[in-house]
Amino acid sequence: MTLLDSLNWRYAVKQFSNQKVTKAQLKQLLEATRLSASSYGLQPYKIIVIESLESRKKLIPFSYGQEKVAHSSHLILFAIQNIVGDATVDRYIDKHAQMLNKSHSELSRFSDHMKSALAVKSPEQKQEWAHQQAYIALGNLLTSAAIMKIDSCPMTGFDNEGYDKILGLKEKGLATSVICPIGYRHEDDNQAESPKVRFDYNDIVMEI
């Protein structure tokens, strides 16, 4: 399939089958998601993969009864850092220095610039910025999954605090941002046959 074929094929699955995404496919999908664009490359989030049915069943009460969080192949969760700041930058600079074989002193101006850019934001703005980065990665996950013929359903309809408590994320310095069950559509999922409703090209695209 071409890219456009893949995007026309995908939809927000309502009912998943019992078919599992293989370990190799999952690794490839997560690797593609890892390579997502991110402001300054900071990636202020973790990608959490939940396969355990027992663990996912505990999340149903905090998912407004949406059982597909449990009855899918895997549940992918994006969790942002609770505190975004100098430590976020230092972590990236350490990796940058390692990958490019540069000293920290050579990267000091870059580091200071990023820290200054974050410092002017309020704690709430930093959290919103981190959520935005997670959503960029989510978009890449959805597109990559479609190309791989893996179904998905991005979800924001859940109790974030409930998820954080069940998964112990606060203790890890994280907070749930968005979730996405993945797997394969069930043959009884009528949503698969529904036309994709999107505004026309000229209604969405403005050429200036």
Describe the structure.
The chain is α+β, with helices and mostly antiparallel strands. It has a single domain (3-37, 45-81, 131-204), classed as NADH Oxidase (3-Layer(aba) Sandwich), CATH 3.40.109. 42% of the residues lie in helices and 12% in strands. It has helices at 3-9, 23-34, 53-57, 86-100, 108-119, 123-147, 160-167, 201-204, and strands spanning 45-50, 74-81, 151-152, 174-183. It has a four-stranded antiparallel sheet, with helices on both faces. The relative contact order is 0.23. The mean pLDDT is 96.
Could you list some keywords that capture this structure?
alpha+beta; NADH Oxidase; 4-stranded antiparallel β-sheet; 4 strands
Topology:
Layout (H helix, E strand, L loop, with lengths): L2 H7 L13 H12 L10 E6 L2 H5 L16 E8 L4 H15 L7 H12 L3 H25 L3 E2 L7 H8 L6 E10 L17 H4 L4
Antiparallel strand pairs: 1-2, 2-4, 3-4
**CATH architectural designation:** 3-Layer(aba) Sandwich
Helix content: 40-55%
Q: Tally of extended strands? A: 4
What's the tally of helices?
Answer: 8
Distance between the termini: 32 Å
**Can you give the mean pLDDT?**
96
Tertiary shape: globular
Which stretches are poorly predicted, pLDDT < 50 over at least 5 residues? none
The CATH class label is Alpha Beta
Proportion of strand residues: 5-15%
Structurally, the number of domains stands at 1
Looking at this structure, what is the CATH superfamily?
NADH Oxidase
Q: In order across it, which strands form the biggest sheet? A: 1-2-4-3
- Radius of gyration from the alpha-carbon trace, in angstroms: 19 Å
Q: Major sheet: size, sense and barrel closure?
A: 4 strands, antiparallel
CATH fold topology: NADH Oxidase
Q: Note the quaternary state here.
A: single chain
Order of helices and strands: HHEHEHHHEHEH
Structural class: alpha+beta
